[in-house]
Fold each of these.
Amino acid sequence: MDRLWLKRRIYILSGLTILLFLLQIIGSLFPVHLLQYGIIPRSSEGLFGIFISPFIHGSWSHLFSNLLLFLYLAFY
């Protein structure tokens, strides 16, 4: 049972990591401004950003620093 739990966790974390990298690649290669989907204060349109903003990063270093901590904390 413990091995199955670990396997599922690795699959979920791998999928999220790939998704984060793909979003960063799209944001880097194409003229898509993903930051516009972040949290916009004092507007009802910005509420959607609460759910989207964890997947948007301003730079590669921002992505790597968040991803390192995310993967570390995911196993504890």
Amino acid sequence: MSRNPRWIPGFALVALLTTASTPWVPAGGPRPKGSLVIVGGGSRSEAMMRRFVELAGGAGRARIAVVPMASSEPRATGIEVAAELDSLGAKSSVFLVDSVQAESAAQVGQLDSVTGIWFTGGDQAFLTAALGGTAALGAMHRRYQAGAVVGGTSAGAAIMSDSMITGNQTPPGDTTGYYGDEYPAIARHRVQVTPGLGFLPEAIVDQHFIRRERHNRLMSAVIERPRLIGVGIDESTALEVGPDGRWRVLGESEVVVYDARRARVPALAGARLGATDLRVHLLPPGSTYDPKSGRASIPER
């Protein structure tokens, strides 16, 4: 059990607000054989992280790449998370690259044998700037297709979808946007959405959801994009997505699901949004959800 994670070499400062290019997503292929463990931020229970290691092959077999570029201190964060995973029996490495190094065959080759990939928290724009559209992202998707588990927390949760909530908002008359946790309205063109990394293409993910009261933000994003399922994951809570496509809630709090796929969304003037027949599920730990049918099941206690 190593407490000194092996480094995958190479890192240069990522341009801070670079827009990611279109993520690599297999077209028309089979469902991935791997799983996702998407944590909504906050504290992570040992049971939750043990589940991630178990899905990566279990103690003594799990080989995990920690991807820390979202963090403002990526090197220290990578070491810390790798040590946490190693304490659970995994063998962890830190994959720390910029967008140029993410095209390097030598760097990308380091991902070929991993059974798990973990994205740390921080700023999701840093991650998409480093990995969007790169060979490294393609390698990560291939590992996921082959059976590796992909997980992340906070910013590492936001990047899971094709369409990613950046955390910025663009009020009327503001074309650049600014970061702010207060979203005072459900309105068109207020939530800044850019390309994510595409591991959960049928959804749009928000995190710290109940604790930070992000209902207006995710509701706005979903009504503007009704083909996507809105997934609001609270802190200390995870959404596990299995190879069969079904979702399961783990942890301490709830996941909120907004489903507008069968809703009526009228075209209203200006920034105003409206919808009827929008389905909402509040899913406590142990609940399951089938995104194909839209049916949820909550365990009775």
Amino acid sequence: MIPFGDQLRCFVAAALSAAGIKRHFARGFVMRSGFQFAIASLVLSVVTLSGACSPRLSEPVTVEELEIVSEDVADVSPQLQELRKRRVEELAEACTILQRQYESGVIPLEQLLSAQAQLAEAEVEAAETPQARVAVLEKLLALSKEHVQVVQGRVDSGNTSTVDLLLARAALTSIEIKLLQAKEELESP
């Protein structure tokens, strides 16, 4: 059996990979969109809370270290869209299993929230219309609010620092920004 810390490290590596984050030598991180930065922030704060994150991964990344490459959904090949849909299905199945494990007390809430955030990010990528993107971002916003409440509870009980709460709130704000941008895009002619 693999120790939980090692499982969580593998999970985090997969989450960061799913969020489109790649390591580059001195440049820091390369991400495909600001939304993925928000997802990565959410995942990193969850992992930092659980104590399974290395100090380097939890260091903040500056805007100068990010390279943003936009991708329009309309320009996506059918094969790529099919792969994205398959990823959503796989993550949805994983979330269902993790939900049962959480309800049985086998895994912590943070692990379930991380998986749900990955699912929401995959759903945003797979969204074929701006309306679908807005709906998924609203779902992710609700998850992020729940995450902030969990972190607030940990701060109140003395199990984590205020910095973790600030990071969770910043991730929430990033998602709010993306949602507002998606709604504005929806309203523009």
Amino acid sequence: MDKKSTTDNYQSSAYPFAIRFFNEIKALGVTEVAVSPGSRNTPLVLAAEVTGLNVKVFLDERVAGFYALGHAKVTKSPVVLICTSGTALANYLPAVIEANHSGVPMIVCSADRPPELRQWGAGQTIDQVQFMDLMFDGFTIYLLRIMLICRKLRI
């Protein structure tokens, strides 16, 4: 199946928001995206690809994080990191800390389970808001709750 037919048929309320988000990111001059594969981040990955950003896939989140850090240092432009929920986000932390201490901007996008599916013992689930508050304190500027925003805007 080609990319166009995949994106045309994608049924997620997060997808239209993600398209808008990545169009804005691209307009600000960001060109590079480092992806750690997962199922919940599919709308983000597809949106990054169809908006024309250069998407690279890394099987190890730590490698993706340090690739993003190195690329951002060399190009002086932030790299977007995209991961699924759960511990994937935690694996970006060493690179985010290094970026912060080096004055290198990073954009971290993490998919999450819908609120109604959290705290039921499901795999790949952590309280991402609490995690970001505790671990990324001082590093996080914006925490977007995409699904809640999409529901509110009815997109």
